[in-house]
């Protein structure tokens, strides 16, 4: 016999509960979307205020030549402002106008800091003005500025203004700089693209079908487009160097604690295996050097006593002694594009012709460093901290597969890693590296990273090297490709693991011959990632390609000196062509 339909009330109860749950979810999603729309409206209102301010200035000062102001390098600009020959107001509104143009084209600015106009109107400081007096500077979203959000692309961080400036911003202001805009980032920062649900995709100012890089992509686009003369970002795997290389500008990732990170929000707070750093981005190396001179001051050391009191070493930076330079063309993990390889070879020859000594450096075990130090180190808690960031969020970007894998228990991660190993060995290694570590395992990992660093330095010193010339991933990838190519960070992330200062300098552009050679690109693994990277490089004739300049820890001045040499020799070569 059939049972009596006693379950009908229970069924109705379940349906009611389900409908209530859907209603609650709908209300939550609606609330989140309302926050997104409000943030976008605030962004647009800020751009409108920028436009009105520029129009008002032009009406009052029609004779100001903004083009000539924008053509000045940072050292020239700073000198003219400080000696009184160029009013700070003229500089500010020239860059405000250009920044507005560039963000309309690339969507790089997330927030206009209107208080910058008030700071501009303040009287000239008594005594000698700071090195950056009157210089407008742009700030990455994740670097705290009082009264403004640091969203990291997360909806939950909207309408959460910071109570105080980061130490970096405080020192900039004490040096007379005027922070005037905040710039876009990818959601979570753990990406070398630049897109989030709140503010959308940022585009490369040189070619709109290309990514500007990330995670400091808004800075790369704004500085690369000429809308900011000096920008600041962060780097935990290349996040300064990718945007600089992709947008044809210079950047310096210092040793992790050379500049204060107090008040700078990390994508994965607490992890120590892969060292993050704060650094500058600019059109040329001399601008980076001037910035470091300004920042490495008593204010930096007193506001954050964890920063070693090491002022800028002018003697090292200005030295003209020939350098002994190590170099390599590939890390044997990510096959360089034809333009990348050519960039290193041509720069090597320029340096040799200038009297420097170039020594081949044997780079090894980058695959092991990538999987076991970088991926395992960043996600040593089984990705728990990273996943928590996305709880209650509207979008996870292109990381759907990653999230599915990250949420698996250790036993299933081990199983999936074993199953995929014969077919996709790199994916297998990544999955294995995402397992949750015990405290004992994490301590063992930290010890192994320390030993690896000591071995790398020993190899460096055995060759009696001053600095290292290395490839930098390039040219800029197509929009959407970075999310599919997380393995391509090997050239940059190595120096976060080692915690060496590293900078990038553009040295060439992709040629038709490079594009032809790209047809034969297969990669070292000939897997899906290698095939995808070849597609991402395709169609880049005329786009910039950089090299990476590296020094030992705490030797930023030597790194900058090497970068300056590369830049100078490249400019001379281009003038002769």
TrEMBL record:
It comes from Aythya fuligula. Its EC number is 3.5.1.99. SUPFAM superfamilies: Amidase signature (AS) enzymes. Substrate binds at residues 189, 215, 236-239. It holds the Pfam family Amidase. This is Fatty-acid amide hydrolase 1. Keywords: Hydrolase, Lipid degradation, Lipid metabolism, Phosphoprotein. InterPro entries: Amidase_CS, Amidase_dom, AS_sf, Endocannabinoid_amidase. It comes from the Eukaryota. The lineage of its organism: Eukaryota, Metazoa, Chordata, Craniata, Vertebrata.
């Amino acid at each position: 016999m059939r049972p009596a339909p006693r379950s009908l009330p229970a069924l109705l109860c379940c349906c009611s509960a389900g409908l209530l749950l859907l209603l609650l979810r709908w209300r939550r999603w609606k609330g989140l979307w309302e926050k997104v729309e409000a943030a976008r409206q605030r962004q647009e209102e800020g751009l409108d205020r920028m436009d009105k301010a520029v129009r008002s200035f032009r009406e009052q000062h029609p004779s100001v030549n903004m083009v000539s102001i924008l053509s000045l390098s940072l050292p020239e600009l700073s000198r003219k402002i400080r000696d009184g020959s160029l009013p700070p107001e003229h500089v500010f509104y020239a860059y405000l106008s250009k920044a507005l143009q560039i963000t309309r084209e690339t969507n790089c600015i997330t927030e206009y800091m209107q208080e910058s106009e008030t700071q501009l109107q303040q009287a000239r400081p008594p005594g000698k003005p700071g090195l950056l007096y009157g210089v407008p500077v742009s700030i990455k979203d994740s670097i705290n500025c009082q009264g403004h959000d640091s969203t990291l692309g997360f909806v939950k961080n909207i309408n959460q203004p910071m109570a105080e400036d980061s130490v970096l911003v405080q020192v900039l202001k004490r040096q007379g700089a005027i922070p005037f805009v905040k710039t876009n980032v990818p959601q979570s920062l753990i990406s070398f693209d630049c897109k989030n649900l709140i503010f959308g995709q940022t585009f490369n100012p040189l070619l709109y079908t290309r990514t500007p890089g990330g995670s400091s992509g808004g800075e790369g686009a704004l500085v690369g487009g000429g809308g900011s003369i000096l920008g600041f970002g962060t780097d935990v795997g290349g996040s300064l160097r990718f945007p600089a290389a992709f947008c044809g500008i210079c950047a310096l990732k210092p040793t992790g604690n050379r500049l204060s990170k107090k008040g700078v929000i990390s994508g994965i707070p607490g992890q120590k295996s892969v060292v993050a750093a704060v650094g500058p981005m600019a059109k040329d190396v001399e601008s980076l050097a001037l910035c470091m001179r300004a920042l490495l001051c008593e204010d930096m050391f007193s506001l954050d006593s964890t920063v070693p009191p090491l002022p800028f070493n002018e003697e090292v930076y200005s030295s003209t002694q020939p350098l002994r330079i190590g170099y390599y063309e590939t890390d044997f993990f990510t096959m360089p594009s034809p333009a990348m390889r050519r960039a290193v070879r041509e720069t090597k020859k320029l340096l040799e012709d200038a009297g420097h000594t170039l020594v081949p450096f044997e780079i090894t075990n980058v695959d092991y460093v990538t999987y076991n130090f970088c991926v395992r180190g960043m996600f040593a808690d089984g990705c728990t901290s990273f996943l928590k960031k996305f709880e209650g969020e509207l979008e996870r970007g292109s990381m759907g597969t990653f999230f599915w894998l990250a949420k698996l228990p250790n036993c299933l991660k081990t199983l999936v890693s074993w199953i995929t190993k014969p077919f996709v060995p790199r994916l297998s290694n990544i999955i294995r590296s995402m397992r949750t570590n015990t405290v004992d395992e994490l301590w063992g990992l930290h010890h192994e990273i320390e030993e690896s660093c000591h071995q790398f330095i020993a190899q460096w010193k055995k060759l009696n090297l001053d600095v290292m010339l290395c490839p930098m991933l390039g040219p800029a990838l197509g929009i959407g490709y970075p999310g599919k190519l997380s393995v391509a960070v090997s050239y940059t992330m190595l120096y976060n693991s080692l915690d060496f200062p590293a900078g990038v300098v553009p040295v060439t552009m992709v040629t038709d011959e490079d594009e032809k050679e790209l047809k034969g690109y297969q990669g070292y693994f000939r897997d899906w990632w290698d095939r995808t990277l070849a597609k991402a490089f395709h169609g880049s004739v005329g786009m910039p390609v950089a090299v990476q300049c590296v020094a030992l820890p705490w030797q930023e001045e030597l790194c900058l000196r090497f970068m300056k040499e590369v830049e100078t020799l490249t400019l001379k070569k281009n003038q002769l062509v």
